[in-house]
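Quick entry, no commentary yet.
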Amino acid sequence: MSGQAPIQDADERKLAELGYKQELGRTWTSFQNMAISFTIISVLAGCFTTFGFAWNNGGPIAISWGWPIVCAILMCVALSMSELTSAFPTAGGPYWWASRMGGAGWAWFTGWFNVIGLVAVVASVDYAAAIFATVLFGLWGLNLGFVNFADPGASILGETFIVYIVFLIIHGLINVYSSQLVARLNAISVWWHVIGVAVIIAILIIVPDRHQSVSFVFTETNNLSGFGDGLLWFYILPLGLLMTMYTVTGYDASAHVAEETHEAEMSAAKGIWQAVLLSAIIGWFVLLAIVFAIPDKETANGVFGFTPGIFDAAMPGAGAELVILISTIGQLFCGMACVTSCSRTFFAFSRDRATPGWKTWSKVDKNHVPRNAVIGSSVAALILTLPALYDHPDLPGIPVAFYAIVSIAVIGLYIAYVAPVFLRLRAGDSFKTGAWNLGSKYKVLGTVAVVWTVFAVVIFNLPFYPQGVPGNEDFSWVLFNYSPIMTVGLFIVIGIWWLVSAKNKFTGPVRTIEFDEAMRVMDEGSTSAPPATPPPAG
C-alpha cells in the first residue's frame, strides 16, 4: 500500500523497524507492564506452594538464606533480559532475540523451550491454586451437591482437578474478553500482593502463641529428602533452591506484552527488573514470617512443609483461613497473568510460522486479542497436568506429578532466558543497545546469569528422592523426577523436527510490514523473512 502516511508513533515506528505492523492493542501503561511480571512471579503463589520443597531440602536456611542469595543472582538474569527487551521490544521475547543474534536455529530451540516452560507455569500455578482452594473449601465445609469438599472420604485429587479446570476456564475467558481488562486486573494484583503480604505478616506475628528464635530461622537445617545428611550442603540444599527459582520466573511477560505497552523500549525493559526486585524484597519478608511462625520442627515435618497445614497448626481457625484465602486469590491473579504471557508467546511464535497450525494460533479477534492462542495455551496446560489425577495407593491424595511440572517450568524458562543472553555476550560491543542498557556491566551480569542457569538445570534434573534413583532397590516411578525425560526428550523431538523439516521452512521472524526510508508503509502482510542466519545485531 504505497503512498500511506508515514508512521508517526514512536512505538509503532520501532515495531515496524523490527518487521511487524501494530496488530495488538497498545493500551498498557508502564506500571501495568511491570505488574504482569510481578503478578506472574507472585510470592503468594510460588513461595506458598513450593515452601515445602525448600523446607524438606535444607530447612530454614534454604529459605532465610537461600531466597536472598538466589534472588541476587536472578537479578543478573533479569537485568540482562531488560537490556535485550529494550533493544527488541517485540511479543516474541527471548526467541526473537535469539533469532536476531544467532539465527533461525537458535530461535527454534529457544522458542519451544519458552513455550513449553510457560505452559508448565500455567499448569503449575492454576493447579496449585486449585489445591489451596480445595483446602479452603474443606475448612469451610463447602458442599455443592455434586462435589462435597467437606467429605474426608472423597477423592481429593478428583476434587482438586475439577477446581483446576474451572480456574483454567475463568482465566481463559478473562484473557479472551479484553486485553485491557487483564492489564487492569494486573494493576490490582500488585496492590493485592503488597497489602496481602503485609496482612499475612501481621497475622503471623500477632496470632500465633509463640515464635521461633532468630537462631532457628537462620541456622537450622532440615532433611526429609531421604538422602544422607552428608549430602546436605552439596546436593540436598541446592535442590531446596527450586522454591526460589520457581517463584522468580515468568518475568519475561513484560517483554511478551511489549507490543501492547506505551514507550515499550523503556517501560518493558524496566518492568522486568523492577518486578524481580520488588518480588525479592516482599517475598523474603513473608517467608521469614512463615518460618518464625512454625510451631516446631516436628509439626512442619508432619505436614511435609505444606503451608496450609503449617498455618492451621500455628493458628487454627479464622487466622489460618484468612491467610490461605489471601494466598489463593493472589495465585488466581498469577494464573490469569500466566495465561496472558503464554498466549502472547504462542501467538508470536505462530506468527513466525514455527508451530503446527500457525495460521490458527496467530489470528487476533476484533478486540485485538489472540483468542485462539489463549484457548490453545489453556488446553495444553490441562493436558500437561493430567498425570496429577493419578492417586498412588502408597501416597493417597498427593499430586506426585506437581514438582515435575514445576521443574519443567523452571528448566524450560531459564534455558529460554539465558540462550539470548549468551548470544548477547558473544556479540560483544557490536551489539546495538536500546534506550535502556547495561553499558559495560553486561559482561559480568551476563556471565553470572549463564553459569548459574547451567548449574540450576543440572541440579533440577537430578532425583529428588533416593527411591527416584534408577537402580535403587526401592525404586519407584512415582518418585522419579520426570524433568530429564521432558527436557532431553523435548530437545530430541524439536531437534529431529528441526533437522528433518523445520530448518527448510522456518527462517526466523517473518516480516508483516515493509516501509520506505521516510517510514511510509509500502506493504502490509508481507511474508518476506530475514536471512536464515542474520548477522549479530549491530
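second:
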Amino acid sequence: MFNWMNRKSGPWSLETLAPPWGSGRPLYEIVVENPHLALPDEDPAARLKWAAGALDGVMGHHLGRGDATDKLKRVLDALRALLDRSTDSNFRRLYDALCEGQVLGYVDQLLPEIDRTHSSDGPRLAALARLLLTRAPRREPVKFGIAVLGMTGSATDVDMLRQIGACDDFTLFAAVAIRNLSPRYERDLWELAKAVEGWGRIQVVERLSHTEDYEIRAWLLREGFRNAVMNEYLACICARAGRLHEALRVSAKDPVLLDAATDLMLAMISGGPAEDIDDYEDAAEAIEAYLDALWVQQTFKPKFFVVIDRIREWLTSEEGWDKRSKCGWTLESRGRCLVLSQELLKNEKWKIDAVVDLGSPDGDVFHWANSAARKLGIDTWDVLFAKVAEDPIRSTFWYELTEATDGPRIDKVISFAEHVLPLDEIASGPSDEMGLGVGFEPHGTLDWMLQLLDRFPGKGWNLIRTGLRSPVVRNRNWSLRVFKNWRKEDWPSDANDVLRAAVEAEPEDDVRKNLEAFLEGRSDSDQ
C-alpha cells in the first residue's frame, strides 16, 4: 500500500489545479461530436499533413519508434513530481513534456516503468488519465491518458474509450486499453473496427487476428480488410482469420463473399507493405476454391477478369515456387489452378460486360472495365480521352489515358494538355512546394504528361520547360527525368540554355546537383 506519510504535503487532487492547456476545447468533445473531423491541434506550419492516425501507423509498421530515452525520462520525472504533489507547476511540467514528440515512441517503455514504480498510485493515475483523455486539447496528452487508463481503469471506462477510439488518431491506444479492460474485448474491438476506416481499422483488425468468434470472422472476410489506406495491410490477416478457403467451399454461391474474395486475392497477389500471398498458409486451397466459386456463379464482372488474369500471371511466373509448399502448393494444385484460370478467361461474355461497363458513370466500375478491355484487345483511347475532357484539371483518368496513348495519338494529347493547363501559372518559378492539396491540381496533371513524354523523344517541349519552372519539386524532377531518357539529338535547340537557367534558379540542393551532374555528363559525352 502507498505510504501516505511520505508525501510532501496535504491532500492530493487535480480538481483544484488550473488546467495547463488554458481554454482550449477538449479533443474528446470534438471526437464525440464528429470523429471524422480534422483535429484542431495540427501544427499550421507543418508542410507535411498526416492523415488521421497515419504518423503512428507508419511509425509502428515501417519506421520503428527510435530512441526516445530523453523524452521518456522527462515524462517520468514530471509524472513522479505530480503524483507526489498536485501543484499547478507540476501539472504544467507534465503536460508540456507530453506535448513534445510522439507518445508512441516511448509508450512501450513508459507503461512497464509506471507499473514498476507507481503500482500503489492506481487511483491517482486513473484520475489523471481520465482528465487528460476527456479535457486535453492536444492529441499526445490524450494518447497518454488513454494508455495509462488502460492500466489503471476499469470496465466502466470502455464506452469512453470506444468513443475516443472512433477517431483514427486514437484508435491504436484505445484498442490496447480496451483489450486490457473489457471482459468482452473482442466484441468491443469489433464495434470499434466498424467505426473507423483508416489506420484505426488496420490497428484494430490486427488485434482480432486470432478470434474464434464466427460472426467476427465472417465480417473480417467480407468487410474487415477494407480500409482507406491499403487493403494490402489486412488482406492476408483477414483471409487467414476468416478461413477464406473454407468459407468459399461452404458458401460458393455467396456473391458478397465472392466480391470480397476478389479484393482479397488482388491485394495478396499484388503484395506490398504487409503479408502477401506467399505468407498465406492456405493460399493453394483458397485460390482453387475462389476459381471454383467463379465457375459456380458464372458472373462476368470486368474486375473478376482482371483478378483471374493476375492469378494466371502469378501461376505462370518462374520464381518462388520452391518455397511455396508451405502454402499448400504442389505441381498438381498449381496445374489445376492454372487450367481453371485459363478456361475462365476464354469466355466471350467478358467482352460484353466490359463494353457495357465502359459506359458507367461510376469511376471504379469504369476503371475495371478499362483494365479488362485493354487485356481483351478493346481500344478504349477515345472513351478515356472523352472522360478526361469532362474535367481535365481534376480528372482521375489521366493515368489510364497516358497508358493508352501511342505514337499516332501523342500529338493530340500534347495539344490538348497545352490548351487546358495554365502553363504560365505553373511556370511561376522553382520553389520547395510539395504540390499536394487544393490549388495544385494542374501540377498533378502536368506530372502525368511528363511521365508520358518519357516514351516520345522530342515531343512536348513546352510542357517540359514548364515543369522546370514549376514551384513543385516533383514537376522539376520529372522534367529532368525526361531529358535523361532522351538522346541528345532529340533535344530542342534551346534545351542547353533552358537547363543552365534551371540550374541557376534551382533552390533545392539535391535537384540542382542532379541538374548540374546531368549537364556535365552530357557535355563530357560530346567530347
